[in-house]
C-alpha cells in the first residue's frame, strides 16, 4: 500500500486516519493535507503525523485518499492532478462524486476507487461500499478494501448503486441518532430522568442491533416477538403507522439518494 496521503481531514478524514493508526499503521506511513492551519496543528499534535500541503502530500503518496466535501473536489483534483505519481491509486470518499468525474481530471489511466464510508468507522464498526473506476484492476480494489477494512465491513457494489448506498449507510447513522434523540425526549416527556432515559434507549438500540446481526432473523420476526396481542408495542406501532413513519423513511432516503446524485454536478 506504501505511503497513504489523506487529503482533507475533517470528520471523515480524521475517522479514517485514526482507524488506520489503531489498526497498526505507523504514523510515518501516512501524510495528511488539511487546509485549515488550526486543524492541521491539532492533527499533528494528536496523532504525530506529518501534515503538509496537498501537492507535496500527493507527490510522495502511493495511495491518495480524497476526503474533502464534494463541492471542493473539483478544485482539489485540479490542484493535485499533475503531481499524482504514475501508478498511484486515487480513492475518493466523497458523496456523489463519480469515478468518471475524477478520471476526467486526473492523468489518463489513473486507477480510481469510489468509496462510501460511514462514521461508525470511528469505533471500528464502519460500513463501506467500494466501486471500481475504469482503470482499476482487482489489486487496486483489494488495496482499497484493505484500507477500509481496518475500520469495519466492506462490500463491493456497482457504481450505479453508490447514491443509494450513500442514502442508506453513508447518512444512515444520522437517522439512528435522530431516532435515539426522539426516544430519549419521549422518555423525558413520560417523566424519566434524562440519564435514565438515555441509558435505556442506548442499550435498547445496542441490544436490538446485536440481535439483528447475531440471529440473522428478519426484522419483522424480531418485531413480532416484541408485539404481544393487545399489548403496548402494537399500540405504539399503530401510532407510528398513523403518522406514516415508514413512508417518511422511504421519502427521506429518496431525498438523500437524489441529493447525492446532484452533488456530482457541484451543486
Ligand atoms: N461525515 C460523514 O458522515 C461522511 C462523509 N463522507 C464524505 O467525506 C467527505 C468529507 O466530509 P466531512 O469529513 O464530513 O466534511 P468536513 O467538512 O468535516 O471535512 C472536510 C475537510 O476538508 C478540508 N478541506 C477543504 N478543502 C480543502 C483543500 N482544498 N485542501 C485540503 N483540505 C481541504 C476542510 O478544511 C475540512 O477539514 C465529503 O465528501 C463527504 O461526502 C462520506 C461518508 C460519511
Ligand atoms: O451528509 C453528507 O453529505 C455526507 C455523506 C454521507 C454522510 N454524510
From TrEMBL:
Would I find NAD among this entry's keywords?
Answer: no
InterPro entries for the chain = 6-PGluconate_DH-like_C_sf, NAD(P)-bd_dom_sf, P5C_Rdtase_cat_N, P5CR-like_CS, P5CR_dimer, Pyrroline-COOH_reductase
Look up the record and name the pathway of this protein. Answer: Amino-acid biosynthesis; L-proline biosynthesis; L-proline from L-glutamate 5-semialdehyde: step 1/1
Q: Which residues form the Pyrroline-5-carboxylate reductase dimerisation domain?
A: 159-263
Q: Where is the Pyrroline-5-carboxylate reductase catalytic N-terminal domain?
A: 4-96
Main location, first listed in the record: cytoplasm
What keywords is this UniProt entry annotated with? Answer: Amino-acid biosynthesis, Cytoplasm, NADP, Oxidoreductase, Proline biosynthesis
Q: Which HAMAP family match?
A: P5C_reductase
Q: Which family does it belong to?
A: Belongs to the pyrroline-5-carboxylate reductase family.
Q: Which protein are we looking at?
A: Pyrroline-5-carboxylate reductase
Q: Which organism is it from?
A: Longivirga aurantiaca
